[in-house]
Structures are given as structure tokens and as C-alpha cells.
């Protein structure tokens, strides 16, 4: 039995006698399993011993050798047991493992709920004690009343004004001791007193009353009251606050008496304050302008950090494209066609590199929900190496150590790229004098103890270590590094959001993140990403290997405001065997559609002047609901949320695209 329970994750302790059992009973025990031979020992247990151990409420499972015990027999047995045993479950032999485990699981859940209720009751009692202590020592009068106006809870300050524990509006004998005035200076009737109004569901922000104690004199009070509601949103009482403003009123009277003498000084002071306020306003506006300039400067600096090295690469790529085209034009003019293929290949390669770099930069700017899938982490990191080297300074070396055969991770690849870029930028800033940034991958099999020590859950993970040799993080700050807006960088050099965004992404991916650091040695941050299921495979685009699919004379309306792109689409689609009609904007497209008897596909840019592509598609599909639509856009593949952007019979293709990709996508959309 002990082995069976252990295999199910229960910690089982065997007790051979009553004393041993009593020594084990405490709040950690979820259930006690006893044999019927142990019952006599329990019946002889003195009541004082039962109470002293405080183990009332622990479920007991009695395994009996007797079969067919009647309800009366069970009640007789139950009566013989100590009163501390409030929950008893009877199991009869023979007993199968499934029945035992099912019963243990049931009583275990019951015990957990019992402990949760007990802890909640203790917590509520402590909260009530705290509330009562707080109310008791508040420097103002506080009271909770029921619907009759009677006091439910109050403090001494309130009882000073309402000694009979009934609000004045409901106590005719004391109503005359309270005087309040309305806006016209007339005495308020008692149904307009603060407590009476609150019991009708009104909120009284503040109302000034004069109170005349039995001992004589006059006291000024300010009363606020709010209604209290039950679960059905019906008023069940009210809360009142009484503030002593006697000194305030006396000061007001004194001020009124000296008003004539002080009027000139007040006016002079008012003018001085107005001048100071005007000066302060100008200074605040100037400061706001300076802060905006600083924010803009920081934005430009952040952009410059990422794009400074990229501009050089783009110029190289554009030089390859422009140079190859110029040489092709020169050779064609000379009717020298031998090297045209080489120049065309060079131009295409440079353009493809530029397109890939553009797509990667746009991917880093996305704001989207996670799209987790099986991802090969090592190739992803290798694809980032060039970008990371451009982000680092020339005094920082990048060391990439990737473990072979680590499998696939279940993660959003774009967010993982963004996280690695954030960590690399942080590491760069931590190495102002240069150093080494190491990115390593490994497989981490964590048991419960190891995972708990690192702040995660047991399981199999792909671990990515990002380690620098920088200034390190003080031990006192290490626990705060993932808090939003916390940064160790100087003022103006960090938002404090980078690590918190990485932390949130990893947590949302069902992983966890750990950090170790030593001052003047460096910092290591490890991302633990869950491995993908064994049946998963990496998602690979099939567009690159697709064959050119020719059309069969279908009619396509192309709407594109860029002359060059419109020309290329026209030529490419006609070469593929389609009949093409062209429009520069949405209005021209609608006119053409009105004149066309048949059209098989609408191809439109998203960012059109006037009507955008999405609006145009909605108008067209109102008249031609079966017409498929292909959107083309210069944004990244998933920059917009496709489930929200695309409607029925719609598809999105991003620029730039190859002829093969265009042919495959058009053919696919026509088959929708």
C-alpha cells in the first residue's frame, strides 16, 4: 500500500501504534488510513488527549475485514470513535488499488478544501481585528449603521456625537441638537440629514452641521455618508464619517473679522502668486518641451543603435542592384548579351538580401499575441548573428556556442528574436569598455528541486544562456531586474522595460527565466523554453519550392498606386496567362468593376490613397460576395492581426515577393 501511494506522489508514513500515530498528526496530514484492528486503540483515547493534539478534521479511512456492514453497524462503530474524528470513510476488503487511490484522492481534496477554509477564516478574523483596531484609533468619527439607523460598528469619536447609537434623523429626542442649513440658509429637515439620505441610496460628500451637546456649547462637524449594498444591489445600511471642524469654523470667523484689514495684503499677495504661477507655468512648458526633445533624442538614439550599421549594408545591396542594372543596360545597348545572366543573378541576390533584412527589421517592431510553434532554436540564433554583430560595438566580441541535436522549442520565433536582441543590447550597455557576449544553447532536464530553485516547473527545456563580461548587477538589485521601469542605467539611458518584456514573454510561453550576476565579473541570463511535443515539426514555408503555376485566361483586376509595382504586376500576371485590368486607386477600381461583366480575382494594395484596400474589398464583396481578394502589403508577414484583418475569401501577401510566390499565391486564391 505504501509503495502504491508513493508511486502516485503521496508521502506515506507507517505507524505501528497509537503513540506513533499521534506523533505524526499535524496540519500537514491529508488523511489517515487505519485497519479495523486499530479501532480499539482509538476508542480508548482520552478526550483530553484528542483535544490537545488538535487533529480534528483529518479524514480517516477505515479498511475493514468485515464485508456487508450495515448502516446501523457503521453508526455504532462511528459512535465508538473519538469526537475528534469528524470524517470517516469505510472501505471493505478485498480492496483494489483503483478504489483505494480514488478514495485517497477524494479525502485529500476534502482536506485541502478544509485547510483552505480554515486559513480563510483565520485571515478574515485577522482582517476584522485589524479593521476594528483601525476604526478605533481613527482621529475622526466612523460608523456603520443598519437600515434602522442603529449603530453596527463605531469608534469613540463617533460615540461622542451620537451617544445613544441611533442617527439623529431617526431619534426625535436628539434631532434638535443637530442643525444644518440648505443652500438658501434655511434649516434642513431631518429627512435631509446625511444618514437618512444615505439610507435612501444617496451619496453625501460633505455636509456641515452644528451640534449642541447636552453639557452646553456648540461644535461644528462635517459629515459624509455613503450607502452600503448587499449582493442584490439593495441598500443594506450606510457608512458615516464625522469630522470635527470646530477649529476650522473658528478660524473662518476670525478671518472674517479681520477681512477688511487684510484685504489689501491679500490682493497684493494674490498678484504676487499670479505672477509666480505664470512664471511656473512658463517653466513647466519649457520643461515639457525639453523632456519631449529628450524623449525624441532617446528614440532617435535607439533607432540609430539598430540602424547605424544597417545603412552601410543597405548601401552595399543597393550598389549591387543599381550597378548590375546599369551594366545590363550598357551591355544591351552594345548588344552584348553574354553576361546578362550573371548581372541579373547579382541584382536579384542583392535585392533578396535587402528584402530579407527589411523583413527582419519589421519583425522586431511587431506588437502581437504569441504565435507559438515548433522552432529550431539553433538556426534562428544563427540567422541573428549578423544583426547582433551590427548592434554590438567593435570592442565587444560575439561568441555563439550551439549544442547539437537540442530538438525543437515551443515558442513564438519572432518574440524570441526580439528577446535575444533586447538581452544583447543590455549586455552591450553593461560592457562600456568592451568584452565578450556569449550565446549558448543546451538541453536542460530539471527535476522539481532544481526547477523550484530557479523559479520554474520541472520538465524538459531548451535553455538559452546569454552571458556578458560586464559590470554585473549588485546583489541588492538582482531581485528587481524584471520589475517594469527598473533599470541600473543612468537617467535617460534606459526605460527599464526590456527585461520585464523578456520576462513576460518567457512566462507566457510556459517557460521561465533565471539570472545570476557578480559585480565586475558579468551577468548570465538563461531563458528556459519548453521543448516541442515529439510529434511536432518545424513550420517551413513552401513558397520557395513552389513551381510557377500558369493561369487559364482568368480575369484579374489589379489596384496599385505605385507605378513600378503596378507595371510589374501587369507584366507578370499577363506572362502567367491571366487577363489583367489596372487601376491606380479605389475609385478608379470601382468604375472599372462597374464596366466589367466578369472578374475572377481582385488584387489590391492595402495602403491606397482615399479608399484603402480593405475598404475597397468590403464594397466590392457587397456586390460580388464570391469574388476572392488578394491583398499585397509592404508590412511584415504578421504585422497586422490576420484573423481580425482578413474576411472570408481573402488572403494577404507581403512585399517583396518573387514571381514563383506570386504565381503560387494567385493560383491558391483562385481556388478558394
From TrEMBL:
GO MF term set: phosphorelay sensor kinase activity
Database matches in PANTHER family: SENSOR HISTIDINE KINASE (PTHR43065), TWO-COMPONENT SENSOR PPRA (PTHR43065:SF42)
Enzyme class: transferase
Phylogenetic placement of the source organism: Bacteria, Pseudomonadati, Pseudomonadota, Gammaproteobacteria, Pseudomonadales
Source species of the chain: Stutzerimonas zhaodongensis
Residues annotated as domain PAC: 205-257
Coiled-coil annotated residue ranges, if any: 245-293
All residue ranges annotated as the Histidine kinase domain in the record: 309-533
Protein's UniProt keywords contain Phosphoprotein: yes
Response regulatory domain boundaries: 555-670
Keywords noted in UniProt: Coiled coil, Phosphoprotein
Name of the protein in question: histidine kinase
Signal sequence, renumbered to the chain: none
CDD domains: HisKA, PAS
EC numbers for this chain: 2.7.13.3
PROSITE patterns given in the database record: HIS_KIN, PAC, RESPONSE_REGULATORY
Residues recorded with modification 4-aspartylphosphate: 605
